[in-house]
Amino acid sequence: MTTGEANKPRIGGIGRRVRASSWSSRIAVVLLAAILVALGVQAVQDPQQFLSQLLIGVTNGSILALIALGYTLVYGIIELINFAHGDNFMIGSFIGITVLSGTFFGLSFFSPITGDAGTALKVFGVVFALVVAMAACGLLGMTIERVAYKPLRNSPRLAVLITAIGVSFILQNVGIIWKGPAQVPFPDLISNANILGGGIVFRWKDLFVISLTVPLLLALSYFISSTKQGKAMRAVAQDKEAAAMVGINVNRTISITFLLGGILAGASGVMFGLFNGTTVFNVGFVQGLYAFTAAVLGGIGNLTGAVVGGILIGIIAAMSDQYIGVRWTEIMIFSVLILVLVFRPTGLLGDRSAVQGGGEERG
After folding, report:
1. Is the pLDDT of residue 48 over 60?
2. Which helix (H) or strand (E) holds 108?
């Protein structure tokens, strides 16, 4: 058999795969277009309701974006999916309610801050809860990296993956011991009243989430792009060995990455509790799964992609809740994810450096 004849089956197989991939992409495009057309029809029929759902989606998506950033930061540095990150978010919400209630494992330290408190006391309580949660979750993130991940840095990926899942279960059980398995209510410190008129719903709670998310995103962007440590993170993300050769402390840089992810998890945990009025021990798994989906949808390994993915997931969930039904929401979220990955396997913004938010694609 000649070389040409031997290559014919291989070439034929490649051709079939290319055609199958082409058809998959076409189907994905058609389905995505159908979804967009359906949303456009709803926007024309009832623009006020559509805009209200859009704002709800942006608000919920902002919280998911902060969580997703923690996933993509860590992945960009050490290519590890930190499955305990969502549970760090849960711990942040528990810290928030602990600070606001003034009790810790049944011991009362000061009077709880309730919805009847004055405006100044409410503002102080929210700010104090945010600061404590961000600091504690940041330190928890660093501790998890040092204790659970650093000793396994040169081990097979499966060992690190199992360890990450194990840490996740440990934190969930800590949550059960701390607050129990039932829902934990947050005090109603932020008004649920509508700011806008004309039938478009945009509440003070929505404004609270967005006005806190935007500065955090800007601060993270500045830190990554303009500070010495941020530049070190970008260097480690590109090439650890080369970064170490020029004097960058790789271990310290990785720890700071986990610190940043934990800070964002703590902030989003408190925001989630105040926005939704409740939290529970397994909220980290659920919201963490959505946030991880957002990171993959936007292109895991890209800061901007994590933000875009989070907001898109929030909008998809809000639109599905209103126009299709709550029980279909998860189906819609993951269906859109699959359709996008079929059309663009690296996510919407490609597989780029997590700590740069742009640049050339790796492959």
Report:
1. yes
2. strand 107-108
